[in-house]
Amino acid sequence: MKHQTHVSFIGAGEIGGAISSLVLHSGVSVEQWDADPKKVPNQKSLKDVVSNADVLFFCVPSWILRVAVKPITSFLPKKTLCVFVSKGIEEKTHLYIDQLAKKILPKNQPFALLSGPMLAEELIAGKGGSALVASNNRKTFVTLQSIFSCTGLRLEFTNDVRSVAVSGVLKNIYAISLGIAAGLNWGDNRKGWLCASVISEMSQILKMQKTNSLFAYRQSGLADLIATGFSQYSSNQTLGRELVEKSHCERKSEGCISLPSLVKQIGVKRMKMLPVLSSLDRIIIKGKDTKKEFETLFCG
User: Fold this and answer.
1) Boundaries of every domain in the chain
2) For 1, which DSSP code?
3) 6-159, which class in CATH?
4) What is d(CA 8, CA 24) in angstroms, rounded to the nearest whole number?
5) The sheet that has 6-10: what strands, in order across it?
6) Whether the predicted model's global pTM rises above the 0.90 cut
């Protein structure tokens, strides 16, 4: 049965392609647009793709989100629901995705964050996924639940948008530490200790940011951490492995980009209470030796 909802996507990379293939199963009308027209055969104009959308997904990294939104604001319908899947902090402004959305979208534009374990490769393979729909309006959840019906993506609603935004950033950053552990060939015992330490720190930071610490244990936190921290498909996990070999960041990832802003927000005094994050700071920002830092981290 044909669905009447029109769903458009800005960004036709892995996650954009995966989510668009999912919603097609529910019979919605789907349009894609990408800055690289080779990714979308017979691509329509940006104006056509956006102006016809009931739901508009932004499937681009946080560091180009502002650039992606700016050219569409003049023809973005007021009722179009904008959905953001990126999890980061803008470098120059230090804004989280929810803050950035309010800043760059037209006033009162409805939007939601979609955050949880949604590895593109597994979604495409039909292995399913899970996500929190974070929005100030529950109708948003109903809309998204409708277009993801029978797709294998499990959705849950929360109106705590800020906690989802912060926990998603923390997940990306700490997934790098699990990649480092894998690159160092740590055994399961050490990895178990690291996971417990990471979750404890995520909970502490959520409190520091005046958000709900319980989101460290929800889809945007623990669930996504497990998926991306242990998956070969994760860019943050891969970056962690590469840090073991090269001790510096060559790959651009949400976790690596967001780390300096988070460290600045936390401050020097409170960083002392966060040994895993402090180790990542010394490795990624200060260029210290990865193996030595993580041996010191474990041995105390």
Assistant:
1) 6-159, 162-299
2) -
3) alpha beta
4) 11
5) 29-33, 6-10, 55-58, 81-84, 111-115, 129-134, 153-158
6) yes
